[in-house]
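Task: sequence design from structure.
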């Protein structure tokens, strides 16, 4: 299985990016992982929230292959413990999912089209995090999940 994380806008904090790079490299020991950065919408200040979601949504949907399973990182999604998340990933692998594509939306969330294409929603927390920090937290949780699946000592039960 391949895992893809799509996110709108680049990470402009070099410290966050360095940590993202660390966990992205670690993940490579377990699975093929791709961080796909969708460029910020140009002249977004001239657009309504709905127009911005539409443009970002089209870019997200264009990055998907027909066989990809899309899961949104969304505040209204299902919350997992780290162990439950590792079980979720194992079930996706057992089901033969070719590419599991996770998406982090822009500042206003996702368009209706993206919601209708999604096959699941996951929430990392009831709290709100910056889009840049969510990338780090999610990639670290992916890494943690694979160490759990491999019974490695990174995660303490």
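Answer:
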């Amino acid at each position: 299985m391949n895992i893809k994380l799509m996110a709108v806008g680049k990470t402009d904090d070099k410290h966050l990016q360095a940590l993202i790079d660390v966990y992205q490299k670690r993940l490579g020991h377990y699975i093929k992982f791709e961080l796909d950065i969708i460029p910020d919408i140009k002249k977004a200040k001239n657009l309504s929230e709905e127009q911005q979601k539409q443009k970002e949504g089209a870019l997200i949907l264009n990055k998907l292959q027909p066989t990809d399973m899309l899961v949104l990182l969304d505040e209204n999604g299902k919350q997992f413990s780290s162990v439950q998340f590792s079980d979720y990933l194992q079930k996706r692998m057992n089901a033969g999912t070719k590419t599991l594509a996770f998406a982090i939306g822009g500042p206003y969330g996702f368009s209706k089209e993206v919601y209708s294409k999604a096959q699941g929603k996951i929430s990392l927390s009831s709290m709100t995090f910056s889009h840049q920090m969510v990338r780090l937290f999610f990639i670290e949780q992916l890494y943690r999940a694979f160490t759990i699946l491999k019974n490695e000592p990174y995660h303490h039960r």
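The two ends are 26 Å apart (CA to CA).
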